[in-house]
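Subject: Protein record for review, amino acid sequence with backbone structure tokens
Concerning: The relation between a protein's sequence and the shape of its backbone.
How to read it: Take the token row as a discrete description of the fold.
Enclosed: The protein record, placed directly beneath this head.
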Amino acid sequence: MLVDSFGRTATDLRVSLTDKCNLRCSYCMPPEGLDWLPKPELLTDDEVVRLVTLGVERLGITEVRYTGGEPLLRRGIADIVRRTAALSPRPQISLTTNGIGLDRLAGPLAEAGLDRVNVSLDTLDREVFRRLAHRDRLDDVLKGLVAAQEAGLDPVKINAVLMRGINDAEAVPLLRFCLDRGYRLRFIEQMPLDAQHGWNRADMVTADEILGLLGEAFTLTPDEPEARGSAPAESFVIDGGPETVGVIGSVTRPFCGTCDRVRITADGQVRNCLFATEESNLRDAMRAGASDDELAGRWLASVRAKRAGHGIDDPSFLQPSRPMSAIGG
């Protein structure tokens, strides 16, 4: 089992399939984009599946989430999902995406074994979307949401980041939109993971502020604490239920003490925390002929070294050199 020195067990594996993205969201990367990883540095489909198999069959991983960049840009994604679904014990398989291309791929991914999907959607306003993402693709995202629901990828979850003075007035409209369509909404505090290193805490809309905005239109009641488990989102029942909304206060309400996540980047590095400053290179070891035992040993050592928390509030905090698009969500 992937147990760290504080007794936390990693059972949730996040695997980035690419660092490329077809949007340029301002809290992630600059409008001109980034220098993408050269193809030879990326894990091949077989290498991805080998590491996922090792995690599931040897190291206790029970949930696999494929991320990016934008994972739908990976040509072999449906086959990777299919091979993941064939593992024993079968893990839960999910996907985090911006939704572009999901209208074409939701059906094939569901048939391959994908269980559910999280789609990023920060605004329902076309002009605000264009301002945030530097692309006019809101209609494509909305089509992807419909396709995911029709393909049976329920519940379709939506992740929204509110930014002060940009889309913070959309908290209530976003929730109404999701309630009307049967989507499950989670608001996420903006984190210091942008490539520009321009994150400013004062510009972040906090969890308390999000709840205050929602409270102007809805009655929110904290869900049963035991229902949360190791989930990052605090869940709130809306107007007596049964619908709920989630708030992930990664900065102001950190959940590090119950974190069960571990990450593999698109170039095969193990990261024991989203904000880790060190990585363990499984790709080069694998290509040099390392056995599964040797790879497992490297992975176990990386998780054992996990810190108690991300330390954003500590004066010594250093933002990771890699942005979110290169780390994987």
Observations:
- The chain has a mean pLDDT of 92.
